[in-house]
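The step that takes the researchers longest sounds almost clerical: writing a folded protein down as plain text. The outcome of that step, for a single protein, is printed below.
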Amino acid sequence: MVEGVPAAPAPLRATDTGRVDGISRRIRGASRLGRLPVLLVVAGVASALTLTTVMALSPHRTPSVPSSSPIPTRTTPAATTGAALGPTTTTPTSVPLTAISTTSTPTTSSTTVAPAPVPAPVTVVAPAPVPAPVTVVAAAQPVAVEPPVATLVAAVEAAGIEPGSNWSWSMGDTAAHCGPISGSGTGCTFGAGGLEYTVFAGSPNLSLVAHELANAETQNDAVPDLLSEVAAAAGGSSWSPTDAVASCLVAHFIGIQDDAAGVWACPASLATFVAGNIHDTLSTTVGTIPG
């Protein structure tokens, strides 16, 4: 800092020595008054420097005192001469102040952060319901329901098999007369006291009913020679000679192999011969079995 130096007072002349005491007192009084402005100027400069320092340390604050502002002019009392007493003004000296550099306020660059991409919604497709497996139940084969036995008996008699007037049939236990017989339908024919009886059990079919009626006719009418000749032709493939002759009658009148008494299958020619000789009364009338 450059501070103004007050000018030295002019030396007293010898002619003024007689008033030295009075003048000195006045000068001292004036000197006291003259120092007050100087002190004020110094205090002002110190304040300005302090403010400048504070502003230099605070770059973000705008200086309140411009750097080009001059220091207020100060006055000092002039040198007192012997001729006249009075204050003299001292030419003010301008003290330039160091230019206050203003530091630009730093700018903070802002970065725009792009928002994270929002994933597209995922469409969840529900699986198609799986149909429950369909259980295919095979249709039950209808069970053949045989006609009533009475209906079958009437059909066999209408076809030409004649069990005789002494014959009758019933439903009951076939094992009591013929022993155990397997099958869903069974039949047993036997004679007692000149009478013929047939017992049926279960659900006999047409071939079984026809075989039992032919058995009754054979037992009533067949002569011994016919029985022996047909049995010889069957060769033991039928249960008995009576059963062999009865199967031939069924083959002739019903047109089927009854398979009711073994595996015997009566040929058609023999079946015709048996049907023509079943009612012979004498063995000598039986002709020669064909074949």
Notes: The chain has two domains: 1-100, 149-279. The chain is about 35% helix and 5% strand.
